[in-house]
Design brief:
single chain, 415 residues, alpha/beta, 5-stranded parallel beta sheet, two-stranded antiparallel ribbon, 9 strands
Length: 415
């Protein structure tokens, strides 16, 4: 994406006319998106404010701008929240400021990137910003979680398939590579890809050619590939594929490594993502206006809230914090008392690696010696999610694997 500070002003005929109507929903989303984009890029506030006023006085933003804003809203993932504005960012950059600067730089380079980081650290959001700051910004951005599909099914999703390629292939289907031609594909949980699919992806990265599953015809596509992996799983990647995908690597930032003030900034920016959302207050529908979000920021910045946010280890990182902020804003839950009461005994690097490895079966729990008495409640819910969700797990067997009673397990899952 071009730098905001160098983007030419939209051409207008005659002098701007002052609008008398209120902003539409799409314009509010665009405004929210452009302010966050400016924060990511480190643009001086005065520059972006002047541009926003000029555009909104003259009429609605372009269709392309509105579509990008819609994608920003639909993404719904924790983004690179928590950094500083331009002046302080230059003088005293924090970990997220440095991450933002590198993300923008990589985005504009057009290089394939491998994002390495723990669960919940916003890897998909980083990949989207790389796309949004690139020359491919107006082309498709498609995401695929490699852990969702096994074997040839993953190959079929990625490269498409011909009729009769497998039992349920009643007619041919194009894959994500073909759909994203000219744009960007994000491959999450990349090491979960089977060796066969890794080999086919390597060939595609070498010359842009591929064939659909069950077919021999060669196709070509121009696609930028951004991928993501957890550190403990990188050993499952072919070394030659690793080098092709990691033209540049980017490491995310876990919340536990941030300073207290920076964690509060993260929380405030996640609250910002809820602006203009509809909700019910006092039994009537209301909208979370900027004034209401400012009140939320004031509450998040109190000494009590800062202490609660910074003294918690955040095994779920930004995803966990995002859920907590939603409850704080929409339900007015006493989340800070909850945080203060939680036990987070995870302290060593070995412990963290134990937690961060994906869990696909109860055998994984037994082999790693994970016990309920050592697990934060937030991680337990994350664990249940990895096993298919609370409705899909077998509570009795899970309780046995975690060395606890059925009732104890269910009480923890309700927290």
């Amino acid at each position: 994406m071009k730098s905001i500070s160098t983007r030419p002003a939209p051409e207008r005929h005659g002098s701007p006319t002052r609008r008398t109507d209120t902003l539409s929903r799409n314009e509010r989303h665009w405004l929210q998106y452009r302010l966050m984009e400016a924060l990511i890029a480190g643009t001086e506030p005065q520059t972006i404010y002047a541009e926003l006023i000029t555009v909104l006085r003259s009429g609605p933003p372009s269709e392309e701008e509105q579509q990008r804003a819609l994608r920003f809203v639909e993404l719904g993932e924790p983004d690179m929240a928590g950094g500083n504005y331009a002046e302080e960012r230059k003088e005293r950059p924090n970990a997220i400021d440095l991450l933002r600067d590198r993300t923008v730089q990589i985005g504009r380079s057009g290089l394939n990137c491998l994002i390495i980081g723990e669960t919940g650290t916003g890897k998909e959001s980083l990949s989207w910003y790389m796309h949004d700051f690139s020359l491919r910004r107006n082309q498709p951005f498609l995401a695929l979680n490699c852990a969702f599909f096994e074997g040839e099914r993953l190959e079929a999703e990625l490269f498409g398939y011909e009729q009769g390629a497998f039992t349920d292939a009643k007619k041919k289907k194009i894959g994500l590579v073909e759909m994203a031609d000219g744009g960007t594909i994000f491959l999450d949980e990349l090491p979960e890809m089977t060796p066969r699919v890794q080999a086919k992806l390597l060939r595609f990265l070498q010359d842009g050619s591929y064939s659909r599953l069950g077919g021999n015809q060669a196709y070509r596509a121009d696609v930028r590939v951004i991928s993501a992996a957890q550190p403990a799983r990188l050993g499952n990647l072919r070394s030659d594929l690793h080098y092709r995908l990691a033209e540049v690597e980017l490491a995310t930032v876990p919340l536990r490594e941030l300073q207290p003030r920076d964690i509060v900034n993260v929380a405030c920016n996640l609250a910002y993502r809820l602006m203009w959302a509809k909700t019910f207050k006092a039994e009537k529908e209301t909208i979370l206006t900027p004034d209401l979000i400012r009140l939320v920021w004031q509450r998040l910045a109190t000494p009590e809230a800062t202490a609660a946010l910074s003294n918690y280890a955040w095994p779920g990182n930004m995803r966990e914090l995002s859920s907590l902020i939603k409850r704080f804003v929409l339900l007015d839950d006493d989340v800070f008392s909850e945080l203060a009461a939680k036990r987070t005994p995870v302290t060593t690097e070995k412990d963290w690696n134990n937690f961060l490895l994906p869990v696909t079966s109860l055998t994984d729990l037994t082999e790693r010696g994970l016990k309920l008495s050592n697990l934060p409640s937030a991680y337990l819910n994350h664990l249940a999610s990895q096993l298919g969700g609370k409705d899909a797990i077998q509570p009795t067997k899970l309780a046995q694997a975690l060395d606890c009673s059925y009732n104890t397990l269910m009480n923890h899952l309700k927290k």
